[in-house]
Write a structure and sequence with these properties.
The complex is a heterodimer of chains A (159) and B (290). Chain A contains 9 helices and no strands. With 159 residues, chain A is mainly α. Chain A folds into 2 domains: 32 residues; 118 residues, Cytochrome c-like domain (Cytochrome Bc1 Complex, Chain D, domain 2), CATH 1.10.760. The longest helix of chain A is centred in the first third of the chain and has 16 residues. Chain B has a single domain, classed as monomeric porin ompg (Porin, Beta Barrel). Classes of the chains: A mainly alpha (159), B mainly beta (290).
Amino acid sequence: MRKIARIHRTAIILFAGMPFFAVALAIAQSTAEHPPAADHFDYSELAKSPVKARARKNPKEGNAEAALIGRKLFAQHCAECHGAAAEGGKKAPSLLADEVQQATPGALFWLLTNGVVRRGMPVWSKLPEPQRWAIVTYVKSLRPLPPAQHVESDNLVKQ
Amino acid sequence: MKKLISAMVALLICGACISRAQESPYIVTYDHYLEEPGNLELEYFSTFGTQRSGKVFVADWMEFEYGAKAWWTTEFYLAGQSTFADSTVFTGFRWENRFRLLQHEHFINPVFYMEYEQINDADKLIKEIEGHDVESDHAEPNAVMRRDLNHELELKLLLSKTFNGWNFAVNPLATKNLSPSEPWEFGYAIGASRPLSLNASAESCNFCRENFIGGVELYGGLGDTESFGLHETSHYLAPVAAWNLLSGWTVRISPGFGLNDNSHQLLLRWGLSYEFTGFGERISSLWEKR
């Protein structure tokens, strides 16, 4: 009898424990029900990169192999949210936008490393540095600009 | 209901849903990286343990890990064990939550961990060592051990840093059996790991060096509020290795060696995990279409 009671109690607690999945799914659902409009995304996080980080040079800049590696890594880790061609999606902005393309490689590297946690972008410091630089190289290769046009990203952010 | 079933089937067979994440090799230790939001990771782990003055056992657990937010991961575990020449029993469940405390990367990155466990004394996962957990705790027959059911709250502070490709993680823990007479118990887990190569190759490959991550874990008990320290505690040193496959699977293996007479001599662990990207979005789209 005690055994049956214990089984019942376990079953009740098991089912009571399930709401965490419901909560998590509901949160995901609420995001999906109201997908942000394409112009909802702003790029102000780039402006938050420290000056020192923004000034960092990409050691793989102009390296064709690094761009190829970056393309592979982008497909594996980034395309799900930013789109296969970095055109943006429901969850994340386009990386073809001027704000991204004209940002310094250092600013992009900083953003990739730190993520934008409160807006859903995870930190990617778990990828080794050479791989993060390869992703930056690839992203910058999508709309190549002469180095002279790399300007401080905070000047570009729409106030 | 049909929609739900068809969505689940589609998720299982849809190759495009698979993400090749860079999974850590740790089995006991946690680093500060959480599940990507909306992703569901299914994990299965098994521990083979030797037992002096008792019977060897295999303890298994199934883990459902969901990225609710970029700063919040929630996990549900189901656990059981088979003791040779004894029986196979379900030992309980755990509900775990991890919360990232700081927005950006810092010198040390803290994550708060909170878990509720409802497990019986037959549990042999040894997912963490608490208080005075020792080998002899597992020597009794399952029929005796499974009688006592424990409700426990477990708190951890996950401190982790990745530097030059190396990850270092330290997890102090405190556990409270929710029975009022039980003391707080303490333990620790420390880990270090690194991919075999920091550079990636341009080709997609299973055997590229960057897909392999090696490391080591050290974990053990630190007594309780009544007798804090190393007296009558067990400790383990365990090399760990993970292989991240292109298909989305991650394979982990870890032979753990007991460091004193209170420890099992060998805990051989292995695990498989598989990550579904966009799981939350796909499920929620079922409601959107209505």
